[in-house]
């Protein structure tokens, strides 16, 4: 079992809660409230802007030139590809004028991006990648698990097929390989930090679905 597979196995309970979250199951069934999806799209556009920056920070910290170049490419291409899909969704949801730069995120989105930045500020490249990896892997697993489901709502079907696509599955596999390569050179203490960063990100993925499903607000707004 690879190091990445070990991390996933240790996070299995949280992993299953992602795959079978009510937000996901209702999206797949085509019954998800459109306002919940709209809430999610706005939050995820905000998240992806920072997801790309986290790749760029990991790239800058790497001593391996090939990895530096590859992470820089992923900072641009992967995040931008997802943003392009979301921007198409945004237009369909009458959110064409939405700008992440002027947006105040919900607590879960803010906390998740803050976790990534904390790992980038205080961790090594392995910890940075560990914090980024669950976004690839959880979404890829959701896409693969529900690939044969085609909700009548075209927006929802398009969302599922984006993450079920060969392109996204390949991107996930590449990030797993990067993680395993870094772990092969790490001490046991470092690898435990990698797991902590990874597991927290898996938990934040659950929080992100709940945030959209419940239209999460800051405490003073409740």
TrEMBL record:
Residues 10-214 form the Thiaminase-2/PQQC domain. It catalyses: thiamine + H2O = 5-(2-hydroxyethyl)-4-methylthiazole + 4-amino-5-hydroxymethyl-2-methylpyrimidine + H(+); 4-amino-5-aminomethyl-2-methylpyrimidine + H2O = 4-amino-5-hydroxymethyl-2-methylpyrimidine + NH4(+). GO terms for cellular component: cytosol. This is Aminopyrimidine aminohydrolase. Keywords: Hydrolase, Thiamine biosynthesis. The lineage of its organism: Bacteria, Bacillati, Bacillota, Bacilli, Lactobacillales. Its EC number is 3.5.99.2. GO terms for biological process: thiamine biosynthetic process; thiamine diphosphate biosynthetic process. It holds the Pfam family TENA_THI-4.
